[in-house]
Amino acid sequence: MVKYKSIYFKESQVFKGFLDKLAQKSLLNDIRLIVSSAPLLSPLTPWGKPMSVKITSAGKYGWYSDNNGYRYTSKHPNGKDWPEIPNSIRAIWHDLCPKSPDPECCLVNFYTKDAKMGLHQDKDEKSFKHPVLSISLGDDALLRMGGVNKSDPIESIWLSSGDVLVMAGASRLAYHGVDRIRFGSSQLLKSGGRINLTLRVVD
Ligand code: SIN
Ligand code: MN
Q1: Is 150 exposed, middle or buried (0-12, 13-18, 19+ CB in 10 A)?
Q2: In degrees to the nearest 10, what's the CA dihedral of 15, 182, 188, 6?
Q3: Mutation test of ligand 1: which of 117, 143, 197 has the most ligand atoms closer than 8 Å to its C-beta?
């Protein structure tokens, strides 16, 4: 029986409650394994400003940013390959993006109390024909989304633990960002905070 609700938000699709508590906890274990081999990093914007989220990645590529710009890299700055994307995470991708090949990057964003993410487009990939899939775990987050032009009208939606967002077609290059999290709104992470996983095909 399907227990989740699918809603359209701007041109994207949000699968509310796609992952139940058990699936969320099991993903958390997989994410802990990723972080143990590819420790969380504190990225800088290309302008040298520290970002408020901590990041790491799994997959053929990891997404990274420092003074040299936004980019995909084939190794963690510690010199090791990024760990493989766990099957549990790939399964969600194939379930909701059945026409796409395996994802090549799973970016892990970790938000503490005051972390947020400015409005941006996901456009470091070689092509934009495959969706961006984003999984929310832990505290609620207020996601903002506009259109493909920065001046397009923006709407907001609260994303909760277990929600999955798919940005495909007209929303693939939509501007989006995270205004704030509702710290402590979820019990999933013992010390609070939010994890977002973003899956993408890069090549
Ligand atoms: C991102 O765009 O990289 C993250 C979005 C989110 O945290 O929901
Ligand atoms: Mn993004």
Answers
A1: exposed
A2: -10
A3: 117
CA–CA dist 203, 61 (Å, integer): 10
Task: Among 2.30.42.10, 2.60.120.590, 2.30.33.40, 3.30.470.20, name the CATH number for the domain at 5-200.
Answer: 2.60.120.590
Tokens found for residue 144: 């903002």
Query: Look-up: residue for tokens 């510690």?
Result: 78
Which amino acid is present at 139? D
pLDDT number for residue 188: 98
- Please name the helix (run of DSSP H) or strand (run of DSSP E) that holds residue 93, with its range, or none: helix 87-96
The Cα 47–Cα 50 span in angstroms is 9
The alpha carbon of 1 and the centre of ligand 2 are apart by a number of angstroms equal to 31
DSSP string, 37-49: HS--B--B-TTSP
Domain boundary assignment for the chain: 5-200
Q: Which regions in the chain score pLDDT beneath 70?
A: none
pTM metric for this prediction: 0.97
199 C-beta closer than 6 A to ligand 1: no
